[in-house]
Amino acid sequence: HRIKKSPQPNLFIMQPVIGFVLSTVWLLVHALAEAQMQLPSESCAGLQLAKNNRDLQTNALATLQTAQKLSRTSVGLASSIEAGVEDTVRRHFASTTVTKGHGKVIHIVYSDSRFYNTRLQWLFKTWGAQLPRESLMVIGDAVPTQQMAYTVHATKCPAHSHGEGGCCKLAEAVILAHKLMQRDPSFTWAYFVDDDVYVRPMSLELALDAQGPQSNHGV
């Protein structure tokens, strides 16, 4: 898929949703408080309704507190991901000698720590060997215990998971690719692939060149 060059990726994608929830709950709390003040205290029905309103208000306040905690958690998680990605990008370019002929495609490979010594090694010795070091990066779930031929970005995603873990790695991979392409604008495409796929890098680059680098969508 092609990553469109754009301003800083929005790591706080949940904040607009959380903001809407907070404002809605807050309005509900105030509406319930005003309704409670206007209830006829002489009426048994009014007293029962007041009690129900107090229960609703209590539940609304609890929901508000939960939403606030979720907001703080999302901000903290986004900051942690951002810092981790920035560190990986620095390591990546510090460990490579960027060549002008590295091509236009940055290859992002999804892997798992249990495959670091098998699939990744086979990949490095086959199609990966056709690429300079700066053109390939691995998205994993743990720091390698031995030196790797290419940079491995160790996420905190669930290990050995093709569902939740896979989705988590995809999210960080997109952020990482964006950062890499900002750092080196000669990369105009990002290609995401699993570690058990055989890629023909030269053919891939020719095919992507034919798509036109100014298109606003992936292929």
Radius of gyration: 25 Å
Number of distinct beta strands: 4
Count of alpha/pi helices: 5
Name the overall outline. elongated
- β-strand percent reads 5-15%
Largest sheet descriptor = 4 strands, parallel
Q: Between the first and last Cα atoms, what is the distance in angstroms?
A: 5 Å
How do the strands line up in the largest sheet?
3-2-1-4
Please write the string of helix (H) and strand (E) elements: HHEHEEHEH
The helix content, as a percent range, equals 40-55%
| Structural class estimated from helices and strands | alpha/beta
Sequence stretches where pLDDT stays below 50 over 5 or more residues: 2-22, 35-41
Mean pLDDT: 75
Description:
There is one protein chain. The protein has helices at residues 15-37, 44-94, 119-125, 164-183, 201-209, and strands spanning 105-110, 136-140, 151-154, 189-194. By secondary structure, the protein is an alpha/beta fold. Helix 3 (119-125) links the parallel strand 1 and strand 2 (136-140). Helix 1 (15-37) runs antiparallel to helix 2 and helix 2 crosses helix 4 (164-183). It is elongated and about 70 Å long.
Provide the fold topology.
Elements: H1 15-37, H2 44-94, E1 105-110, H3 119-125, E2 136-140, E3 151-154, H4 164-183, E4 189-194, H5 201-209
Parallel strand pairs: 1-2, 1-4, 2-3
Helix pairs in contact: 1-2, 2-4
